[in-house]
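User: I'm writing a tutorial on reading structure tokens. Could you give me a worked example: one chain, its sequence, then its tokens, then a sentence or two explaining what the tokens reveal?
Assistant: Sure. Here is the example chain.
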Amino acid sequence: MSTAFPQLDDDDLVARDALEVGTTATAAERGRRRVPWRFFAGRAAFYLFTLWAAITINFFLPRFMKGDAVSSYLARNRSVSPEAEASLRILLGIDTDKSIWQQYIEYWGMLLRGDLGISTLHGLRPVAEVLVAALPWTLGLVGIATIISFTIGTVAGAVVGWKRGSKLDAIIPVTTFFNTIPYFWLGLIAIAIFSSTLKWFPSSHAYDKGQSPEWSFDFIGQVIMHGTLPALTIVVASLGGWVLGMRNMMLTVLDDDYITVAQAKGMPNKRVLWGYAARNAVLPQVQSFALSIGFIVGGTIVMEMVFSYPGVGKLLLDATNAKDFALMQGVFLVITLSVLVANILADVVYAYLDPRTRQMES
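And here are its predicted structure tokens:
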């Protein structure tokens, strides 16, 4: 008696092959363990091209502006001889005897050597020295304030979204109201209340007049006192955006099936909130936070103007008014690099929080 074997069609063969290699979950687990080289290579190529484009624009943009750094410098120092003017143009890399292409090649050569040029606004000091002196103030103030604002806003937005329909919803219009107030006006109100009226905090500068930066408890206390009002202004002004963004994403995530299943299985609410809902809702916030961290280096120009704070934002404003193109290019370059680095870190964090990102691109 002969035994009849069933004929396997193409779908059966594919299913059998799938069973031999493992389930979909197993394949996904193996995919997570592989290093996503294609993902990193694609990102690296994109950021390298972006860096080249930004540096190229950074070179040409000041040269399209009316006037130049030498003319502005001569307007402030009329005793400079014609020979010194020619030498100064060569020193600044804007020699009229060279073509724009030659200047562009020399500009790249200077960047590769770490030479950002000299600043005519700061007594022909190297731009790198000027930036190094201003960066810590901006990073210390705006950076810490932005991190505090992001943390408080994200946590508050997650809780408000989780307890939607409760009295906590009142937080949204309050924070949004402060977010709509013009930044300089909010800073002036803070000075009027906490500095002029209550006299709790100083109204300007990063430390007391007549002091020089040093590592001492007295000086650090001065920095904290002078930086409290600007930092508080940044936190209050930007908090509404983080709260509203996280709350809206929570409302979207809470309608997904996996949240319903997790609650139906009897998982603790804290675990569902922070381990499932908030972890997925925070993903768009990460990209926004990366951009905020990147632009921290640029400083908040209005804030630094209102509080006379010696950061990079005020440095950029002064350089623009004085047509100090080398200093402008140095500030723009630092801002560009900071934005790129922040976005690279955001990609890494995003891929860690959501493995589907690196699976789809690996």
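What the tokens reveal: DSSP finds 17 helices and two strands in the chain. The mean pLDDT is 77.
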